[in-house]
C-alpha cells in the first residue's frame, strides 16, 4: 500500500489536499449508469482509498445517477475532517443512460440539492460547473448565466468553492471575472496535451488543474514508449503515466478512478515513483508520436 503522506500537496479552495486523489465515476455500472458490478468491492475501494491517505474524491450526482454519491455516503460518512469531496453539475441522465445538458438555474439548484442529500452534507466543498455536454471536448459558448446561478448558490451557503470543467481558455477567463475559480477540470494526459499552456498559466495563478481521463479514459493509454519506460523502471505503464502527470506541474491534482482494489493500489503506488529526467524527456514525445 502506498504512503501518500510522502506525496506533495496543493491548495484546493481552503483545503490543502494530497495531489493523488480518487475519482468515483467508475463505481457506477456500465456507461456510468446503474448500480455497480460489485457493490461490496465498490465500498471497499472507497474505504481503502481514504485509509491509504486520499483526501480528495471527485464525484457527481449524475454518475449513476445518484449511485456514486450514495456509495460514498455509505462507505465514508461521517467523513474525515480533511476529506474534500468535489462534485460536478451541469448535466442529468436520461432513462436510457443518455447525457443531457442541464444548466438552467433551476436545474443547477436541483443538482446542488441532490448532491447535498445523497452525500449527506450541509454544504459542498467544491462544485465544478461543466460547460458543455453536447461536445466531445471544450467548445465555445456562453457561461455567464449558469455560472452566475452557481455563484448565487455559493452566496446562499450551499457551496464553498467553485470550479469549472470541460472549458476553453476564454471560458475560464470569463469565469474568473464572475467568481473566484479554485480549479479547472479538463481532459489531459500523456497523449492528450491540448492544455499545456493553460496548465502553466493556472499554476502561476495558484489555481488547481484536475485532469480527467488521466489514464486515457474508456480506452487506456497505449504507447510503446510508455511501456519501454515502465519496463526500465520496474513499474506499470499506468503508474508511469500518473507519475509523469505529478511531475508535469505542481498544480496538477490527479483523480484516477477504478472499481478494483488491485487497480486502486497500483494507482496509489505511483505517488512513490520517481521519474528520472531522461524518462521525463522521453515521455514528453508521446503526444507528438500519437500511440507510437
CATH superfamily: NADP-dependent oxidoreductase domain
The CATH topology turns out to be TIM Barrel
Total number of domains: 1
Read across the widest sheet, the strand sequence of neighbours is 3-4-5-8-9-10-11
Instruction: Give me the CATH architecture, please.
Output: Alpha-Beta Barrel
Radius of gyration over all CA atoms, rounded: 18 Å
pLDDT averaged over residues: 94
Low-confidence runs (pLDDT<50, min 5 residues)?
none
Task: Give helix % range.
Answer: 25-40%
What's the SSE pattern? EEEHEHEEEHEHEHEHEHHHHH
Tell me the structural class: alpha/beta
How would you name the oligomeric state of the polypeptide chains in this document?
A: single chain
Provide the CATH top-level class: Alpha Beta
- CA-based shape: globular
In angstroms, what separates the terminal alpha carbons? 32 Å
Number of helices: 11
Describe the structure.
- The chain is 38% helix and 16% strand.
- It has a seven-stranded parallel sheet with strand order 3-4-5-8-9-10-11, covered by helices on one side.
- The chain contains eleven helices and eleven strands.
- It has helices spanning 39-51, 67-76, 105-119, 144-155, 169-178, 196-204, 224-233, 237-248, 261-269, 277-283, 286-289; strands spanning 9-12, 15-18, 22-23, 56-58, 84-89, 91-93, 99-101, 124-130, 159-165, 181-185, 208-209.
- It is globular.
What's the layout of helices and strands?
Layout: E1 9-12, E2 15-18, E3 22-23, H1 39-51, E4 56-58, H2 67-76, E5 84-89, E6 91-93, E7 99-101, H3 105-119, E8 124-130, H4 144-155, E9 159-165, H5 169-178, E10 181-185, H6 196-204, E11 208-209, H7 224-233, H8 237-248, H9 261-269, H10 277-283, H11 286-289
Parallel strand pairs: 3-4, 4-5, 5-8, 8-9, 9-10, 10-11
Antiparallel strand pairs: 1-2, 6-7
Helix pairs in contact: 1-2, 1-9, 3-4, 7-8
Amino acid at each position: 500500500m502506498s504512503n501518500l503522506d510522502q506525496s506533495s500537496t496543493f491548495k484546493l479552495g481552503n483545503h490543502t489536499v494530497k495531489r493523488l486523489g480518487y475519482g468515483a465515476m467508475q463505481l457506477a455500472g456500465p456507461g456510468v449508469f446503474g448500480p455497480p458490478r460489485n457493490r461490496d468491492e465498490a465500498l471497499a475501494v472507497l474505504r481503502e482509498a481514504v485509509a491509504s491517505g486520499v483526501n480528495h474524491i471527485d464525484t457527481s450526482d449524475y454518475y449513476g445517477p445518484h449511485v456514486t454519491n450514495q456509495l460514498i455516503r455509505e462507505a465514508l460518512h461521517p467523513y474525515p475532517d480533511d476529506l474534500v469531496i468535489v462534485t460536478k453539475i451541469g448535466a442529468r441522465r436520461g432513462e436510457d443512460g443518455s447525457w443531457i445538458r442541464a444548466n438552467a438555474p433551476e436545474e443547477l439548484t436541483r443538482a446542488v440539492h441532490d448532491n447535498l442529500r445523497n452525500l449527506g452534507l450541509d454544504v459542498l466543498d467544491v462544485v465544478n460547473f461543466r460547460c458543455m455536454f453536447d461536445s466531445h471536448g471544450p467548445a465555445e459558448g456562453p457561461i455567464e448565466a449558469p455560472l452566475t446561478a452557481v455563484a448565487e448558490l455559493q452566496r446562499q451557503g450551499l457551496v464553498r468553492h467553485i470550479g469549472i470543467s470541460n472549458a476553453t481558455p476564454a471560458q475560464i477567463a470569463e469565469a474568473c471575472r464572475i467568481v473566484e475559480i479554485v480549479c479547472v477540470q479538463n481532459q489531459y494526459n500523456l497523449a492528450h496535451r491540448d492544455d499545456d499552456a493553460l496548465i502553466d498559466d493556472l499554476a502561476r495563478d495558484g489555481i488547481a488543474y484536475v485532469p480527467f481521463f488521466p489514464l486515457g479514459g474508456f480506452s487506456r493509454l497505449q504507447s510503446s514508449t510508455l511501456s519501454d519506460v515502465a519496463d526500465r523502471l520496474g513499474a506499470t505503464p499506468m503508474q508511469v503515466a500518473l507519475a509523469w502527470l505529478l511531475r508535469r506541474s505542481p498544480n496538477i491534482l490527479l483523480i484516477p478512478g477504478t472499481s478494483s482494489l488491485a487497480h486502486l493500489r497500483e494507482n496509489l503506488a505511483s505517488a512513490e515513483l520517481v521519474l528520472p529526467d531522461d524518462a521525463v524527456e522521453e515521455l514528453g514525445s508521446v503526444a507528438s508520436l500519437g500511440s507510437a
